Structures are given as structure tokens and as C-alpha cells.
Amino acid sequence: MKKYITAEYDGKNSNSEFIELVNIEDIDTECLISYETYDSRFGKLMIGSIGDSICYVGFVTIELSAESELKKRFPKISFKKETKEIHKPVLNFVELGKVPEKKIYVCLKGTSFRIAVWNELLKIPSGKFTTYGIIASRLGNPKASRGVGNAVGSNPVSILIPCHRVIRGDGNLGGYYWGIDLKKMVIGTEIDISE
DNA sequence: GCCTATCGTGATG
DNA sequence: CATCACGATAGGC
Q1: What pLDDT digit, counting tens, does each position of A117-163 carry?
Q2: Residue A155: which nucleotide is closest by CA–C1'?
Q3: What is the model's pLDDT at position A194?
Q4: pLDDT, tens only, A145-157
Q5: Contact A86/A122 with Cβ under 8 angstroms?
Q6: Beta carbon of A163 within 7 Å of strand C?
Q7: Distance A153 CA to B10 C1' (A)
Q8: What residues approach strand B to within 7 A at the CB?
Q9: Cα-based angle A191, A19, A54 (whole degrees, multiple of 5)
Q10: Chain B bases closer than 7 angstroms to a protein Cβ
Q11: Are the C-beta atoms of residues A33 and A24 closer than 8 Å to each other?
Q12: Dihedral in degrees, nearest 10, Cα atoms A70, A71, A76, A82
């Protein structure tokens, strides 16, 4: 079984340079999510947005249809299938690794702990890895690795918030919400395969 | 590999 | 509020 090596990082050359997380306190029925599914190199990809902010980026797997996934994630919000301009730079980034010209705002609902974890994920550069335990330490609570796992696993915005760059402390991959094969595939686009 | 200590959440009453 | 079960964990042996 292949082992993965973690690396030091300081936030430079990472997604934190062009993504800003916005916490949505009362994400309720006032909001409307515009979503559309797109063909990507990782299979079907769903992108959802509220206004000019991205609220969801995820893979559409067989057992989880796009709409039921949205219902599960945002139980109280209504949604509409439509293409939005803001989806375009996101798709470009996923497909080509093209860094967006304008800052992308990502709106999320979560406890302060979860927001902190997601912000940490943004700082990991492409092709590098960290562990659940390291993130816990960086947040000042070294024993909270398990809680970090929970937060990472519930990240609603894949790729942009690179939850695939977190692995287990023992060098194994750990899990992935959309399936471990997808995690491998995404990682494979970021590292030298010849290793 | 198995066992156990631990943490943040959401569900439940 | 209090408690409980549940992990994409970590570390010891």
C-alpha cells in the first residue's frame, strides 16, 4: 500500500490566496441555490451557488442523486437548476487548475470550529499533504484530530476547499466523503505519478 | 492488527 | 441542558 508524506506549509501558493470563506449564520428559506451539473475529468460535478457565492462543489455519485444530495446538505433551502456565470471559474479551476482572476467567495454554514478547520484546509498547497492531527495542533487542540475528521468530512465545497489533501498520521489515505477512489483521482492530478 | 483514549456534532429527551 | 452514539483519528503494544 502506497504511503503518503506530509509537508510543511505556510499558506503561500495555496487556495487561500483566491478564496474567501463567508460564514452564513441564518441560511434559511430566504436563500435560493442555483445548481447545475457539469462533465468533468472526475465525472459528473455539481456546482451550487447562492447569489454570487459558491455554496457547493461535489461529485455526483450513482447512489446519491444531485437533488437528494442538496436536500441532505441544505434541508431548508429551495433550489433551482440553472447555470450561473460564477460557476464558470470554478469549473475552470477544477478542470485545468486555472487560478481564478477574481476572488471566489464561498458561503458556508458551520460552527466556529468547523470554519476554522476549513480555513486551515485552504492553506495547504497543491500536491502537499497534512494530517488530521496536524490540523488539530495548528488549531491549538492537539487531541482533537477526531473532531477535525468530522469537520473535514462535512466540507460541502470539494476541490476549492481541498479536503483531499488531508491524510492519516500513519501515511494512509484515510477516507473521502465522495469515495476513496475519487480522492486518489484528485490527488493523482496534483502529484508526480512516478513516485 | 487490536484496544482505548479523546474530540466535536447532531439527535434525543 | 444532559447524555449518547458516531466517525475521513492517534498512539501504544
Answers
A1: 999 999 999 999 999 999 999 999 999 999 999 999 999 999 999 99
A2: C8
A3: 42
A4: 999 999 999 999 9
A5: no
A6: yes
A7: 14
A8: A 110-114, 141, 143-144, 146-147, 150-151
A9: 105
A10: 5-10
A11: no
A12: 50
φ, ψ for residue A131, nearest 5 deg:
-120, 165
Q: A172: which nucleotide lies closest, measuring CA to C1'?
A: C8
Active-site residue, A163 included: yes
- Measure A181 CA to B4 C1' (Å): 30
Considering only CA atoms, which of A175, A179, A161 is closest in space to residue A59? Answer: A179
Give me the residue label for grid cell 475529468: A41
Q: What does the radius of gyration of chain A's CA atoms come to, in whole angstroms? A: 16
pLDDT at A28: 60
- The pTM for the full model equals 0.94
Residue with cell 477535525: A148
Distance between CA atoms of A44 and A60, rounded to whole angstroms?
Answer: 5
**CA/C1' separation A8–C12 (Å):** 26
What's the average model confidence in pLDDT over A63-68? Answer: 83
| C-beta neighbour count of A178 within 10 angstroms | 21
Count CA within 13 A, CB hemisphere, residue A7: 13
Strand C contacted by A168 CB (< 7 A): yes
Task: Return the closest nucleotide (C1') to the Cα of A115.
Answer: B8
Q: Is residue A125's beta carbon less than 7 angstroms from any atom in nucleic acid strand C?
A: no
The pLDDT tens digits for A102-118 are 999 999 999 999 999 99
